[in-house]
Amino acid sequence: MNEDIKMISAMVLVSGLSGMPAIEAPSAPVKKSSTNAFHVIDGQSCNMTLDKDLYISPQALTLRDAGAEVIRIHADGQVFVNGAAIDVAEADRAHFVAYKDGLAEQTQFVVQVIDEALEMTNYALTMTFGEMFGKRHRIVRRMDKLTDRLRGDLASIAYEDNGTFVVQGSQLDAFGDRIGETIEEEMEDLITNAKGTMMMMVGRMLLRGQRGIEDFEQRMETMAANLETEMEAWGADIEARSENFCQRLTELRKTEDYLAETYPAFGDYRLLP
């Protein structure tokens, strides 16, 4: 019977997670915290350095460090560094505006993908456990509660406040690390606590004979195949959007290179290494 329990435990992990796209862990920072949300695609670097807090509104994009404003770019191209206006050439105002708008768009996309990754993980695990134990089983409800808690944590880091989208970059990178650790710990605890339920389920299957075990295996294999197809399609969609993200980030990096070289005070606070 122990072998049957091991088989079912392994099936939970394989059927629920085999179709999910791999998520690359953020690379270890040297001096700055880098939110590495995606793989390097076609040689393009997809890193954004979000070790400070961003405040995004139609009127301005503001970068704060420990509550103190360090950069503010207005919709008309005016730029302030550490509270002091810098003299921006008329021709460069459009570059600052494009940089502001592009950075705002891509930052919000990073947050959106993190939220979507939580949704994907929850969907895969609840589908797997739901097929095994029933959609209203306590294990399924526990996974839903975990996802709600993590989404609540994300909502305290990236949120809208009176028309301003706030991203606490100083906390976002640590949150990305915490997602994987939290889910891994939860899975280990779930598998441990589910042994009793699994033993009862195996017992019921054994009472039904070989047919009961074969029916269960077939049901799980069918569910796993369907889930893998869904996850692959979902992952492909995210990858396509991620490629666009990287391309856009490459364009923004060129703009930032120019602005940082032209305005050294601005270059002290680069976000696209």
TrEMBL record:
Q: Which InterPro entries match?
A: DUF2884
The protein, known as:
DUF2884 domain-containing protein
Which organism is this protein's natural source?
Aliidiomarina haloalkalitolerans
